[in-house]
């Protein structure tokens, strides 16, 4: 079912500016890394209130030290996890725009929709990106803003459709932009260097493998696809899920692929063979965020009811359910120290670990 979400950006920005809430910082917390053997003892360590208007989408750097979160239809913030402070602001269009998701990934009775305001942070923490919808005549298009974290240099990429997901390649030379098609954009000049797929289902989530050879896309048609980056060829389609696929992540060694979706399940797959390893049930709501710990032994998944579940990769067993968020978990990442950072539509950024 097609749903329209209309945003008046000037009004939204004013609301966000007036409702931003000062908060304590996520100062360095003496805590052990979360691992399978101690995951049951993981608790919330710190939180920072980003905005009472919420964080719509969030993405983290490869080491989990930076978070880019969209806080209005035309603005995103880059924050440092260690202290919660704003590193940079990314500002987009000031015009009225409309986002029309091509399908409703949830039951028709649901009154909630996905908010497509994607962000990304490069694995090397050199670049960040934010996509926002723009009007091109009678058609809906997107502008992707690519900004240097330290240099603050800006490059804009114009794309001919609504972009729902973003992901940087490991070397940050390419930015994958997902809509009904996937565009590979040169981060230096904003030019499209390759177009992948055609009418393959809107990509809600994208992830590069650690070596940059593969790109995984999770689509609203319920299919997860693996693409070869060098030539854009489709390598494999994983079996279609009954509902939308909403999140995807490669394990650190690139051997496993984790997928999550509106069917409330977490799945692990062998990348080489496409064989399903585990199907993990435990969430009570749609799951849209997923992340591996640095050692690849632990998996975290975040759902739209605010719950985060920690899973053991070796056997797919649930180890702990972390509660605290009161709304959608829109982003997850483990820090280089093995703690877990989470961002939510409830407007908070939280850090979890073992005291």
Strand percent estimate: over 45%
| Low-confidence region ranges | 1-25, 93-114
- Summed over residues and divided by their number, the pLDDT gives a mean of 85
What structural class results from the helix and strand content? mainly beta
**CATH homologous superfamily (4th level) name:** YVTN repeat-like/Quinoprotein amine dehydrogenase
Assembly status? single chain
CATH classification, class level: Mainly Beta
Terminal CA distance: 46 Å
Tell me about the biggest sheet? 4 strands, antiparallel
Number of strands: 30
Domains counted in the coordinates: how many? 1
The total count of helices amounts to: 1
CATH architecture: 7 Propeller
Q: Spatial order of the strands in the main sheet?
A: 2-30-29-28
Q: Helix coverage percent of residues? A: under 10%
From the alpha carbons, calculate the radius of gyration and give it in angstroms.
18 Å
The shape, in one word, is globular
């Amino acid at each position: 079912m097609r749903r329209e979400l209309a945003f008046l950006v000037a009004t939204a920005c004013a609301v966000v500016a007036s409702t931003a809430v000062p908060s304590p910082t996520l100062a360095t917390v003496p805590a052990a890394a979360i691992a399978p053997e101690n995951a049951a003892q993981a608790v919330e360590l710190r939180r920072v209130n980003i905005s009472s208007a919420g964080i719509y989408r969030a993405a983290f750097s490869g080491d989990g030290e930076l978070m880019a979160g969209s806080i209005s239809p035309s603005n995103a913030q880059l924050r440092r996890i260690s202290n919660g402070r704003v590193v940079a602001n990314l500002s987009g269009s000031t015009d009225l725009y409309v986002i029309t998701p091509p399908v409703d990934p949830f039951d028709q009775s649901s009154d909630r929709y996905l908010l497509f305001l994607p962000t990304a942070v490069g694995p090397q923490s050199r670049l960040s990106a934010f996509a926002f919808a723009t009007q091109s005549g009678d058609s809906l298009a997107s502008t992707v803003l690519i900004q240097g974290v330290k240099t603050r240099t800006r490059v804009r990429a114009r794309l001919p459709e609504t972009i729902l997901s973003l992901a940087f390649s490991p070397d940050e030379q390419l930015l994958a932009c997902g809509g009904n098609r996937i565009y590979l954009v040169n981060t230096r000049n904003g030019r499209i260097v390759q177009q992948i797929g055609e009418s393959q289902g809107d990509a809600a989530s994208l992830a590069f493998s650690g070596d940059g050879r593969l790109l995984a896309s999770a689509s609203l048609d319920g299919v997860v696809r693996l693409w070869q980056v060098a030539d854009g060829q489709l390598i494999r389609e994983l079996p279609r899920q009954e509902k939308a696929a909403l999140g995807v992540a490669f394990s650190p060694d690139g051997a496993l692929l984790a997928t999550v979706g509106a069917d409330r399940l977490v799945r692990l797959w062998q990348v080489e063979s496409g064989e399903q390893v585990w199907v993990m049930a435990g969430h009570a709501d749609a799951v849209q965020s997923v992340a591996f710990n640095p050692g690849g032994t632990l998996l975290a998944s975040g759902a739209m009811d605010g719950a985060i579940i920690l899973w053991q990769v070796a056997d797919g067993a649930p180890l702990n359910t972390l509660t605290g968020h009161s709304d959608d978990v829109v982003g997850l990442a483990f820090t280089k120290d093995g703690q877990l950072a989470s961002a939510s539509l409830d407007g908070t950024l939280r850090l979890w670990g073992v005291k």
